[in-house]
Write a structure and sequence with these properties.
The protein is mainly alpha-helical. The protein folds into two domains: 51 residues, no CATH class; 143 residues, no CATH class. The chain is 61% helix and 3% strand. Strand 1 and strand 2 form a beta hairpin. Helix 5 crosses helix 7 and helix 8 crosses helix 9. The termini are far apart.
């Protein structure tokens, strides 16, 4: 990509704004287009981003940078994040599995501190299994949410539901908190999924809440089951 970023003259362009066509450097591709007249700069009264979901531009931004920016937006600015997601693109479940798996492994490590039985578990095996357990949890959540939303009168596609579910897994980092994380995640993630269904898919709030909160009862049992498997591995 040839060209120079209009905001940062010493930075090479890595792409163009999808709306106005301006050149964007790596920083601007994450934080927003520099053209004040660009129609993508405003969303709900605030400045929008040139790349709505950085994880979906991870080839250009780098995996760690894209994951970090996606996590920050999904967790701290979800109102704008879900409203500006646009058309479904692949990668959301991979993001959710990586975040959830990392958090699940960290949560197990916290539990293992001071617990001789857990400390004796094959840690490498647990860490390798954590992303698969997180992915299974996301699939259960997405399936339950899709079934619930299918009765809303505005049935979404499977890709739309998995996209919201995957990025709502940003809350899974709470699994790494000692003691309280495992209890908080089902409730916090339920709220973020409900908000995502409402903002990204436009379904009524009652259906968004049903699809977001209902599956948490199911996944709560799955989390307990995962913990039981960890105890079994430790034995």
């Amino acid at each position: 990509m040839t060209g120079v970023c209009p905001r940062h003259a010493d930075a090479a362009a890595v792409g163009r704004c999808e709306r106005c066509g301006d050149h964007l450097c790596q920083s601007c591709s994450v934080f927003g287009c520099s053209d004040a007249s660009c129609p993508y700069r405003t969303l709900d009264g605030g400045e929008a981003w040139a790349v709505a979901v950085p994880w979906e531009a991870r080839d250009e931004l780098g995996m760690l940078s894209a994951a970090a920016h996606t996590w920050r937006r999904a967790l701290f600015d979800p109102w704008r994040f879900y409203a500006g997601m646009g058309d479904p693109r692949p990668g959301a479940l991979l993001y959710g599995a990586l975040v959830g798996g990392t958090s699940l492994g960290a949560g197990f490590a916290w539990l293992a501190i001071g617990d001789e039985q857990l400390a004796a578990a094959p840690l490498l095996l647990v860490l390798l299994a954590a992303p698969f357990a997180a992915h299974l949890r996301l699939l259960v959540l997405a399936a339950a949410g899709w079934i619930a939303l299918s009765w809303s009168g505005r049935p979404p596609s499977w890709n739309q539901v998995t996209r919201v579910t995957g990025y709502a897994a940003s809350t899974d980092l709470l699994l790494g908190l000692p003691a309280v994380g495992w209890a908080l995640v089902p409730f916090v993630s339920a709220g973020f999924r409900a908000l995502g269904y409402r903002r990204a898919l436009g379904v009524p709030w009652r259906w968004a809440l049903l699809a977001g909160v209902g599956p948490s009862l199911t996944t709560g049992l799955l989390v307990l089951g995962t913990y039981a498997v960890m105890l079994w591995l430790a034995g």
